[in-house]
């Protein structure tokens, strides 16, 4: 690892303020997705270490919840400062283990840090209420209290930001946390823990369990009565499993699951702006995001013109090693991901789609940026999340038709559309069944707005003033004989 701060490279799990190996001393490898080079051997923890971390977090909670909001805020703010100071190294770690271009990785680090900064401030604003009472001699107040030990299970596509987006509000609320990062990308989580230790979090307040056996680790997290909150980002099938497993202990859940985002371009849209937005919405992180434009719907009057301009813009995107400064599209996470994307393209072509650009596998887990024309709803690519750099472009005729097409999915995370008729913009924005809607913009992810979906894309919100409430309980107190 070519790091300025070599202390950020860690291969052990982090429990109770200490770096530990697994009980059985086994490890698993982490590979660079661009060249499959082994870059680390990580402690392969399991159920026993998870149980230990939860118990330690429970003990730490007794003291952390009693810290003043101001003191918690200062430590979290120090964590933010350290993340920003080490942003270049953190970005390098992220690119090497995940594959996304270095510039994009740096953007993720700063985006992730923004949640730490935001919730350092929100720690001091968890206000209660006084409520007009039902009796003359009574008084009613409410207070907000931290829910307890939080389990956070995070994905490989945003291995830094998905941690800070969950952990920062939990810590600000007064909770303690046990994190299970994806086995493909544990190094970013461990680097964050090194900085958390430097920031001054007491032992046991934040812990990281690394391991390949996600089922065993997740099973302990969901079955433990000590864990009162589970926050998960990942696929809908796994989210459903975790939800079922959490039922016996009636945990509070936040689930940010799969997406099938529509990207609609009406005849009256600024085509150049729509092309620029589609590039961002589709090809960020090589299409490996839950809010990626999964289905592009273009109105028939501008369909051909959009395909031509969009394909030309996509063809200009440099593809390659994320460590190269000019790279815009890096590798997919592994060969399995490449095959999944390629199979969707093959199915689409066999059912009548035409390849306007790309459609071929490269070397080193690369899939060439692809544009498919003449796509229809019978194809798998209409129903399934692509998670790769492939843009299927559908043609539509009317506003009513495209709203029905866009909503015809079990998912409801993000949607985007472009046009100029403001009456139509309002109608479509209200009719789209999604938790987040971008109107003439694809840049919807921000600290200050609530991130989350509806339907089978999950529930709960991350970021914004709403984010900290996910980790707190409201207690009502009735004062009699006043």
UniProtKB/TrEMBL annotation:
InterPro entries referenced in this protein's UniProt entry, alphabetically: Ald_DH/histidinol_DH (IPR016161), Ald_DH_C (IPR016163), Ald_DH_CS_CYS (IPR016160), Ald_DH_CS_GLU (IPR029510), Ald_DH_N (IPR016162), Aldehyde_DH_dom (IPR015590), Aldehyde_DH_Superfamily (IPR050740), Succ_semiAld_DH (IPR010102)
Residues the record marks as active site: 256
Keyword Hydrolase on entry: no
GO molecular function, one term: succinate-semialdehyde dehydrogenase (NAD+) activity
Keywords: Oxidoreductase
Alphabetical list of CDD domains matching this protein: ALDH_F5_SSADH_GabD (cd07103)
Entry's EC annotation: 1.2.1.16
Superkingdom classification of source: Bacteria
GO biological process, one term: gamma-aminobutyric acid catabolic process
Domain Aldehyde dehydrogenase: 19-476
Protein name: Succinate-semialdehyde dehydrogenase
Lineage: Bacteria, Pseudomonadati, Bacteroidota, Flavobacteriia, Flavobacteriales
């Amino acid at each position: 690892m070519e790091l300025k701060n070599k202390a950020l490279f860690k291969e052990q799990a982090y429990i109770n303020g200490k770096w530990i190996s697994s009980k059985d001393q086994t490890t698993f490898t982490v590979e660079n997705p661009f060249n499959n080079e082994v870059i680390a051997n990580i402690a392969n923890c399991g159920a026993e270490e998870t149980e230990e971390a939860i118990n330690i977090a429970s003990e730490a909670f007794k003291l952390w919840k009693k810290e003043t909001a101001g003191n918690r805020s200062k430590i979290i703010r120090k964590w933010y400062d350290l993340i920003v100071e080490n942003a270049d190294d953190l970005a390098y770690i992220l690119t090497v283990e995940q594959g996304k271009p270095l510039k994009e990785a740096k953007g993720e680090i700063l985006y992730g840090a923004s949640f730490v900064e935001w919730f350092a401030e929100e720690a001091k604003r968890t206000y209660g209420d006084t409520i007009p009472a039902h009796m003359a001699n009574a008084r009613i107040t409410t207070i907000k209290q931290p829910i307890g030990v939080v389990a956070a299970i995070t994905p490989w596509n945003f291995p830094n930001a998905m941690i800070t987006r969950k952990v920062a509000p939990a810590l600000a609320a007064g909770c303690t946390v046990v994190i299970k990062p994806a086995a493909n990308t544990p190094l970013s989580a461990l680097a964050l823990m090194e900085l958390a230790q430097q920031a001054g979090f007491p032992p046991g307040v934040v812990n990281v369990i690394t391991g390949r056996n996600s089922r065993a680790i997740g099973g302990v997290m969901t079955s433990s009565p000590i864990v009162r909150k589970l926050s998960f980002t990942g696929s809908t099938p796994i989210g459903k499993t975790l939800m079922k497993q959490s039922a016996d202990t009636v945990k509070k859940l936040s689930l940010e699951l799969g997406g099938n985002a529509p990207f609609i371009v009406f005849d009256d849209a600024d085509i150049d702006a729509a092309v620029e937005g589609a590039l961002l919405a589709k090809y960020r992180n090589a299409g490996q995001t839950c809010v990626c434009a999964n289905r592009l719907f273009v109105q028939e009057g501008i369909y051909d013109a959009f395909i031509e301009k969009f394909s030309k813009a996509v063809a200009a995107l440099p593809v390659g090693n994320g460590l190269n400064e000019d790279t815009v599209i890096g590798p997919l996470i592994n060969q399995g991901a490449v095959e999944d994307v390629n199979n969707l393209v093959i199915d689409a072509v066999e059912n009548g789609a035409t390849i306007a650009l790309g459609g071929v596998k490269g070397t080193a887990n690369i899939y060439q940026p692809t544009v498919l024309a003449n796509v229809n709803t019978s194809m798998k690519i209409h129903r399934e999340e692509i998670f790769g750099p492939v843009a299927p472009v559908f043609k539509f005729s009317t506003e009513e038709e495209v709203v029905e097409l866009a909503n015809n999915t079990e998912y409801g995370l993000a949607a985007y559309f472009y046009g100029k008729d403001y009456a139509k913009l309002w109608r479509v924005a209200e009719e789209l069944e999604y938790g987040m809607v971008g109107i003439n913009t694809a840049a919807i992810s921000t600290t200050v707005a609530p991130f989350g979906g509806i339907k089978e894309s999950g529930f709960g919100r991350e970021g914004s003033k709403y984010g900290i409430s996910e980790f707190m309980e409201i207690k009502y107190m009735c004062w009699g004989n006043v």
